[in-house]
Amino acid sequence: MSSSSMVQPIAIVLLAVAIAPGLAVGDSSVINATCAELKLQPYNYCVGVLSANPAAAAATDVRGLAAAAINITADKAASTLRVISYLVDELSICRGQYTDMLQSLATVAADFGAGRFENASFEMSGNATGYPQGCDILLFEGNSHKDPIFKENAENDLLVRLASSILNLLTGRWI
Question: Which residues belong to any copy of the Pectinesterase inhibitor domain (predicted)?
Fold first, then answer.
């Protein structure tokens, strides 16, 4: 094959590559013009969202952008619903953990009130202290990867460790 006969196929490939984006993808000016007309939406947000979506990027008119925007919104709503469902399940487990923690603390308070400091200390350090961190870990590592009660878990963890340390001081354990 001579070099001149190879030039023709290469030229065709280069021409196809050059015009293919115009054929396969809508004109970004449609996105830019549409976003510029939207007075209640930040322009950069609009362009960013639509440009990142293949269907919107391929749109050739406002109708195509509207269809893409509806689909983008439906996908995000479905994703948010999944996160909420995960959170409901995970928070339900945390609710059970905090219920167990309160029961353990009731036992601690009863033992403490009866002067059974060793029992109270053992119950506190053995059972009550792990619940806030367990809930935090569950929410962080769970399917939702969100922890809407991080602040509360952190405060409960600090408080239960404080109470446990004071009980340990009282009983002479782990001073």
Answer: 30-168
d(CA 161, CA 175): 13
pLDDT 10s digits, 34-73: 999 999 889 999 999 999 999 999 999 999 999 999 999 9
> Do 46 and 73 touch, CB atoms closer than 8 A?
no
69, two tokens: 């925007």
pLDDT band of 127, cuts 50, 70, 90: confident
Integer Cα distance of 46 and 44 in angstroms: 5
Catalogue the E-assigned strands of 4-148: none
Report the number of secondary-structure helices (H) and strands (E) in the chain.
8, 0
* Cα→Cα distances 91→3, 94, 113, 131, Å: 70, 5, 32, 13
